[in-house]
Amino acid sequence: MNKGKKKKKKRRTVSLRLNFLFFIVFLLFSGLIIKLGVVQIVYGDEYLREVKRTENDTISTPVPRGKMYDRYFNPIVDNKPLKAITYTKYPNTKSNEMLKAAEKLAKLIEQDTKKITERDKKDFWLLTHPKEAEALITDKDLELVKNHKLEEKDLYKLQLERIKETELDKFTDDELEVLAIFREFNSGYALTPSIVKNKDVTEQEFARVSERLDSLPGVGVTTDWERDYPYDETLRSVIGKVSSSDEGLPRDNIDYYLARGYSRNDRVGLSYIEKQYEDILHGKKAKMEAVLRQGEVVDTKPLSEGERGKDLVLTIDMDLQLAVEEIIEKELRITKAKGSTYLLDRAFVVLMDPNTGEVLTMAGKQYVRNSETGAMEIKDFALGNITTSYTMGSAVKGATVYTGFQLGAISPGTTFYDTKMRIGGTQKGSYANLGPVSDVTALKKSSNVYMFQTAIKIGGGHYVPGQALRINPNAFSVMRNHYAQFGLGVRTGIDLPNETPGARGPDTLPGLLLDLSIGQYDTYTPMQLAQYVSTIANGGKRLQPRIVKEIHEPSNEETIGPVFQQIQPKVLNTLNGQEVWMDRVQEGFRQVAQEAGGTAAKYFMGKSYRPAAKTGTAEAFYDGPRKNEFSGLVPTTNLTLVSYAPYNNPEIAMAVVVPWAYQPGGSDDINKRIGKQTLDTYFKLKEERASGKKSE
C-alpha cells in the first residue's frame, strides 16, 4: 500500500515537471514567433531593402602614355601594344576563391616564378595547409593570448617562423606556378585591375583565357603597353624611366599621386622628361561604374572610354643628335687611342637656338665598364649636360670682359700689357707674353693677364709687381652675380628636374679671384655654358633652355594630333649695359674664329657659315669616378669651346665640354675638332633639307 502511494506520488511529480518544461518550451516558441512576426511585419521592409541595397563604385582602367617626337615629328618614344591578362579583386573576394581561380588559370598559361620570395612561399603554405598550420600554434601560445601576453596577430608571425625549409622545398613546379599567379592576384587592390601577365603572352594563351572568362571570376584580358624606343639608347637618360606595373607608384610620393586619382599600381614617370611632364603624358583613365550588392559585383556600366596621354614634340633634332653623338664617340676613341690620357672618359655637346632657347642637341657620351664582361663601352650620358659641372677655363672670358664694362673696371678699348705678373712669391700669366692687348684682342688671343687686371680693379685692388695682392672679398659675390646674368653658376631653368647649379669655390683669397676670372675656380655645367654663349649671341637676353617644343592632343591616326599648347620662349633676364659693350665681346669672339692668331682660327677660319667662338683650357684636378684610386690630387686639363653662327645673324649656339682631356705635358684639340665637325654637320643638314635631299 505504501509502495503504491509512493509510485503515484512519484508519477504526479514527474508529470508536473514535464508540464512545467513544456510550458517553458511553449513560452520560448511563443516568444520566437512573436519576434519573427515583429521582424517580418515591423522591420520586414527595412531588411528587404537592405538585402536589395546596392552600392556604386568606379573601376578605373589605365590608358597608354603619351608619345614623344622630335621637332620633325620622328617618334622618339612610342607605346608597343602587349596582350595582357588581368585580375580584378572585389571587396568580398576571399583568399580561397582567388586560389581556385589561380589554379584554373595556371592550367591555361605559363607563369614566370622568378619573382616568388621565401615569404610568398610561407604565406602560400599556410593557406594551402590549414591543418598543419593550425598545429604550429601550441596550447601555451593560446594561453599567452588568453592572458593578454601575446596578441592574436602575433600567432601568424609564429606560424611563419615555425615553417620548416623542407616543407617549402616540397612545392612542385605546378604549385609554384599557381603561387606566382596567386601572388599577382593578391598584390592588387579592390576594384583596380592588376596585371597578371603582359610579357610573352602567346596567341594560344590569350585565346584559352578569353574563352573561359565565365569560369574565371575576376580574370580579364586586355591590351596593355610598354614604352618603345625607336632610337634605342639615344637620349634615354634624358627621356627618363617609367615605373612598371609591379613597382606602381613611388613610395616617397604615393600620397601625392593618390590625391590626384592615381591607383597604387599605376605606372608613372620616375625621372626627367617622363617625370617632369607626368600630368601631360599620363592621360585620362577609362572608367566603369561597378554596381555592388553585399560586396559582390552584380552589374557594370561604362562611364568613359578614357584617353591616352597627350604627346610631346621635343625641340631635339634627332638626325643632328645622332650625327653629333657619332662625332663625340669617334673623337673619344681616337683621343684615347693616342695614349696621351688615361682619365678621359666623357664629352658633351649642347646645340641651342639662341633666339628661342630650344635645345636642338643634348649629346653626351661616357666610357663605362660593362658589369658582365668587364670591357669598357661608350654609353649615353646626355644627362651629364645638366647634372655634372666642371671648371670651363677661358671660354667664360666673355662674361669677365662684359662684367668689367658694367662695373667700370674697363671700358671699350682699354689696354693692358700682357706679361707675367709677380704677386707675392708667385707668378701668374698667359700661355705666352702677348704684349699690349685690348679688350677685343684679349678675347681673340685668350689673355689671362687682361682678365686678372680686370678682376683686380673690380676688387678695388692695385697690382704692384712682387707685392701681395689685396682685394675686397665681396668681389667674389659681385663677379658671381654678374656671371649669373649669363647663366653661369645658376640653374638654367631648363624644363628637366635635378639640374645642378654647379659649385662655388669656398675661399676668398685674392689669387682665387684671378682664377675665377679665367674660369678656373667655380664649376659650371655644359648647359650653363650653352646658355651663356646664347646670351652673347642674341645680344644680351638670357633665354630659358627648353627640351619640349609643343604639346599635342592624342590621335588614333598615324599622324600626330592637333596642337594643344605651344611653348613660348621665356627671357629670364636681359643684360644691362651699352650696346657697344656687347659689340666688343662679339667682335672678340668673331676674331677668335675668323682671324689669324685667333685661338680657334685653325679650325674655323674661312668657313662659309662665319662662326664666332671662344676656346677654353682649364687646369684642374681630377674628380671623376676613379678618384678613389689615387692617394692625392691628380692634375688634369679640361677643354671647352663655345661658338655661334653666323656671327652677324646667329641661328645656332654651341657648347663643347671635354673634361680631363689630358694630363700635364700633354696637349690635344679634341674640343675644337668636335666643335668644327658639329657645326659643319648642322649647316650641311640644313642645306640638305632646304634642297629636299634630306626629308624632315
Automatic annotation (TrEMBL):
Keywords of this entry: Cell membrane, Cell shape, Cell wall biogenesis/degradation, Membrane, Peptidoglycan synthesis, Transmembrane, Transmembrane helix
Entry membrane topology: Single-pass membrane protein
Lineage: Bacteria, Bacillati, Bacillota, Bacilli, Bacillales
Protein name, as recorded: serine-type D-Ala-D-Ala carboxypeptidase
GO terms for biological process, alphabetical: cell wall organization; peptidoglycan biosynthetic process; regulation of cell shape
EC numbers, comma separated: 3.4.16.4
SUPFAM superfamilies: beta-lactamase/transpeptidase-like, Penicillin binding protein dimerisation domain
Signal peptide from the UniProt entry: none
Residue runs in coiled coils: none
Catalytic activity line of the entry: Preferential cleavage: (Ac)2-L-Lys-D-Ala-|-D-Ala. Also transpeptidation of peptidyl-alanyl moieties that are N-acyl substituents of D-alanine
Listed InterPro entries: Beta-lactam/transpept (IPR050515), Beta-lactam/transpept-like (IPR012338), PBP_dimer (IPR005311), PBP_dimer_sf (IPR036138), PCN-bd_Tpept (IPR001460)
Positions of the Penicillin-binding protein dimerisation domain: 61-298
Pfam family membership, one: Transpeptidase
Pathways involved: Cell wall biogenesis; peptidoglycan biosynthesis
Organism per entry: Peribacillus asahii
EC class (word): hydrolase
Major subcellular location class: membrane
Subcellular location: Cell membrane; Membrane
Lineage: superkingdom: Bacteria
Cellular component, GO annotation: plasma membrane
Location of the Penicillin-binding protein transpeptidase domain: 348-677
Family, similarity comment: Belongs to the transpeptidase family.
